[in-house]
UniProtKB/TrEMBL annotation:
Residues 1-21 are annotated as: Disordered. The keyword Protein biosynthesis does not apply. One of its GO terms (biological process) is protein O-linked glycosylation via mannose. This is Tetratricopeptide repeat-containing protein. It comes from Alicyclobacillus macrosporangiidus. InterPro entries: O-mannosyl-transferase_TMTC, TPR-like_helical_dom_sf, TPR_rpt. TPR repeats lie at residues 56-89. Pfam families: TPR_11, TPR_19. Keywords: Repeat, TPR repeat. Residues 1-13 have a biased composition (Polar residues). GO terms for molecular function: mannosyltransferase activity. It comes from the Bacteria.
Length: 173
């Protein structure tokens, strides 16, 4: 599964390596981010994406590298291409939301992508967490609370994010 960008931690297994955490400088931490950073890595992922234009995974990898390297417009392009190639893949919706929310500081634009991520895969914890956090930043505490409650009802109790939903709900009470 490709890396997933969130504000604190993510689920990733990059090329079978043990995940390591790196900051992208845009308010997000990326598990396995070192594999995507630097212009050489960006060029490698872009080359793969260009060679396989219908491969959503290749597009996502290039999007992650663009994001890690601070090129938000490229990241948007790659994630949108991945969505076009595989509209049932939750990762590009979530990561596109993160580009707008964390990278470009446009939470209103990000909201639709987090909402779509939760529709595509209701059990995807990062979609609910990011949706709730985005709603909080937009000042809608009731919508944030609803997102965290949905996360609790849709995500397995064994999911590492389950406690985050509980903690965020306590803060809102």
């Amino acid at each position: 599964m490709p890396a997933n960008i969130t504000n604190q931690t993510t689920s990733a297994n990059v090329a079978g390596k043990a995940p390591s955490v790196s900051s992208n400088g845009h308010g997000g931490l990326i598990v396995g981010g070192e594999a995507y950073g630097g212009q050489d890595n960006l060029a490698k992922y872009e080359k793969a994406a260009d060679a396989h234009p219908s491969d959503a995974h290749a597009q996502i990898q290039a999007g992650i590298s663009a994001y890690v390297n601070g090129d938000m417009q490229k990241a948007i392009r790659y994630y949108k291409k991945a969505i076009s190639d595989d509209p049932k893949n939750v990762i590009p919706y979530n990561n596109l939301g993160n580009v707008y929310y964390r990278g470009l500081k446009q939470p209103k634009e990000a909201l639709q992508y987090y909402q779509k991520a939760t529709q595509v895969d209701p059990s995807y914890g990062f979609g609910w967490l990011n949706l709730g956090l985005c709603e909080l930043d937009l000042g809608d505490k009731s919508a944030a609370k609803a997102a965290f409650q949905q996360g609790l009802s849709k995500v397995s109790k064994s999911d590492p994010l389950y406690k985050s939903f509980q903690d965020n709900l306590k803060k809102l009470s």
